[in-house]
Amino acid sequence: MKLALAGNPNSGKTTLFNVITGKTEYVGNWPGVTVEKKVANLRRAYKGSLGQGLHGKGGDGDHKNKVSVVDLPGAYSLTPYTQEETITRDFITGESPDVIINIVDATSLERSLFFTTQLLELGLPIVVALNKQDLVRRQGSRIDHEKLAQILGCPVIPVAANAGEGLQELTSQALSLTGSDQPAPVFAGQGTPDEDQSRHHFVHEIVAKVLSRGRDAAVVTLSDRVDRIVAHAFWGLPIFALVMWAIYSLSINGLGGWASGYLNDTFFGEIVPAAAYQLFAAIGLNELLQSLVIDGILGGVGAVLGFLPLIMVLFFLLALVEDSGYMARIAVVMDRYFKRIGLSGKSIIPMIVGSGCSIPGVMASRTIEDENERRVTTMLTPFVPCSAKLPVIALFGAVFFPGATWVFPAMYLIAGVLIIIGGLLLKKIFHYEGSSSFIIELPEYRLPSLRHALTQMYKQAKSFVIKASTIILVMNTLVWFTQTYSWSLRVVDDPSQSMLAAAGAVIAPLLIPLGFIGWQAAVAVLTGFVAKENVVSTFAIVLAASEDLLFTPAGPLASIFTPITAFAFLSFNLFAPPCFAAIGAMNAELGNRKWLSRALVFQLTTGYTVAMLITQVGTLLVTGQPAPGLVPAIVILIAIIVFVTLLLRNHAMSTNLTNAAELKGES
User: Fold this and answer.
1) Is residue 655 part of a domain?
2) For the chain, what is the domain count?
3) Which helix (H) or strand (E) holds 130?
4) Which residues constitute the domain of residue 68?
């Protein structure tokens, strides 16, 4: 049996889905978060009402019956305008769910009921979940749900999904409708060319009958006054930068930083290795296996897990800010700037989602209807530092810029600059004008939910630990093995004679213009393409450093990098192509290998150029001496400039020829 959750974007579908299934899917207080259908079974806590519903319709009342709940992307109409609306339309019309639970945003009743009336005309059993009742009560409004049920001809259940209010009754009603016929309301103009206009008029009349507003919509509220400041054309961006700086400062210098310091320096740096050595000595374990476990597994994985508290605190604070309704304002603020580079405010949503993980961020780009905008957004979204890149930032910040609170915000600032420059460049290269319209209904500000923030924090922590215990663990074992053995499979005393050093030496010359000298940096670059966290664990292994030594300014990293080249290495790893999993997501969204190749070349060139400029220009300004590899850096920079110039010129010529052909055809 299938229950489909359908409704407008930001109506609370995923929140309801998480509550009744026990899942922790990502939710955000803005539209466009759910971009693909998600399926899970109903929780055991709701089996009682579910069994009664089945029994009442001739079912056997067996609580072991599985019921799939399908969370569909938000849609305003059954006539799809974007890719995710197409997913919803195709599932509802092609999969024939047993019951549709139509989630209606009770604070935007008129907008939501347009979609409801379309669903009712499909003839499928429908129950309307009148969501966000807590906000309706706060506004002093009242909705006569019984009268609304009479008009629509289907059950209407008031619910507040975030508080779990009314959900037991909702599931019981939904299952009691299984196999029933669903009459659709009839309105004037139905089936005519002006049907949409007539439907809007019909919905307007319904709302007038059932909704009693508690306040005049023309009255300026506190939320309106706040928006005049935080969504201001000039002050909006500085306020956003200040908010993000405060979040990262609290995460790094507060509880997250203190706990991460303890884990890195004491727990994984002293306690765990000492206990492991004692255990292995007691059982007489082979020294080579001791090295594998302590230096390879515990050293590498521990170096990554040490940053878990920092990441947990960071995403807890970000979830609070998102849930308050503030992030929707950022989309409005950024829209006016993104329009100038051929994008729209819709592009900021994938980038905000991508701050947690680039994969769902890239997938969220499918909400953009314009194909060129969607492709450019897919290329630019991985520039936003995700949770996997945070340990790398924290490592280099702690070693080369101890106590500095500007390192994290600086990475996001550089990312923003690169997104703007990259957007302008791609707009010129592919020669397109953005056509996406950006309309967003700003949610009211509200006190953020601690439960939601804790759930998001737990989800990020779980994902981080799973990756550390799988992908990173495998990579650390591989790094340790290739560093321990030569090509003749003999144990080496000098790591520079190992297979790993030989592999790193192949690409090391290419990194000299960036100031990265030595095979260790080259190897970290390679493993970082598998998973960005591998950069930290790789350095912990190849430098044979415990956590308490690796994270000190006088540690072994200082023998490889200067503060300038460290900042360049950090920038290269953040803005070069993302991990393999994110590249797979890019391939799915871009649609073909040709566009994927373009995206990877663009990202690699961007990361390489930025790192090269930071090293060469920064070293010259700070020390007064040229950095190693200055001459090849100049040659490479000239080649990049010539290549980009030719691309711009060729696209301009092809555009002129196309325009000339069109004019000739018209004449």
Assistant:
1) no
2) 2
3) strand 126-131
4) 2-212
Same domain, 171 and 279: no
φ and ψ at residue 99, rounded to 5 degrees: -145, 140
CB of 273 closer than 8 Å to CB of 546? yes
Do 411 and 485 lie in one domain? The reply is: yes
User: Is residue 531 pLDDT above 70, yes or no?
Assistant: yes
Where does the pLDDT of residue 451 fall: very low under 50, low under 70, confident under 90, or very high at 90 and above? confident
Locus of tokens 């030989």: 502
User: Angle at which helices 167-176 and 13-21 pack, to 10 degrees?
Assistant: 90
* 3-state SS class at 405: coil
Distance CA 121, CA 51 (A): 28
Looking at the fold, whether 545 and 614 belong to one and the same domain comes out as yes
Asked if 195 and 321 sit in the same domain, the reply is: no
Tens-place pLDDT, residues 24-82: 776 655 455 556 778 888 887 775 544 444 444 444 444 456 888 999 888 888 887 77
427 and 462 housed in the same domain? yes
Regarding whether 282 and 208 lie in a shared domain, the answer is no
| Same domain? 245 vs 207 | no
Residues 364 and 82 sit within 8 Å (Cβ to Cβ)? no
Distances (CA, A) of 516 to 387, 420, 455, 563, 628: 24, 27, 40, 12, 9
Q: What is the pLDDT of residue 474?
A: 87
In a domain, 624, yes or no: yes
Count CB atoms within 10 A of the CB of residue 286: 9
> Is 300 a member of any domain?
yes
Classify residue 383: in a domain, yes or no.
yes
pLDDT, tens digit (0-9, with 9 covering 90-100), for 182-225: 778 888 778 788 888 999 999 999 999 999 887 766 777 788 88
- Single-letter residue type at 370: D
Q: What is the pLDDT of residue 435?
A: 63
Distance of CA 397 to the CA centre of its chain: 24
The residues, any chain, with a CB within 8 Å of residue 389's CB and separated by 6 or more, are 532, 573, 574
DSSP 468-531: HHTHHHHHHHHHHHHHHB-TTS-B-SSGGGSHHHHHHHHHGGGGGGGT--SHHHHHHHHHHHH-
Rounded alpha-carbon distances, angstroms, from residue 138 to 112, 215, 328, 444: 20, 11, 20, 11
pTM: 0.76
pLDDT of residue 63: 46
**Tally: H helices and E strands in the chain:** 31, 8
- The residue among 156, 177, 212 that closes a domain is 212
Judge whether 566 and 539 are in contact, CB under 8 Å.
no
Tell me how far apart the alpha carbons of residues 624 and 270 are, in angstroms, rounded to a whole number.
41
CA dihedral 313, 315, 320, 323 (to 10 degrees): -170
pLDDT in tens, 462-483: 888 888 888 888 888 888 888 8
Ranges 78-82, 94-98, 146-150: which has the least confidence: 78-82
pLDDT given at position 52: 47
Whether the CB-CB separation of 151 and 206 falls below 8 Å is answered with yes
Are 252 and 188 within one domain? Answer: no
* Rounded CA separation 103/34 (Å): 14
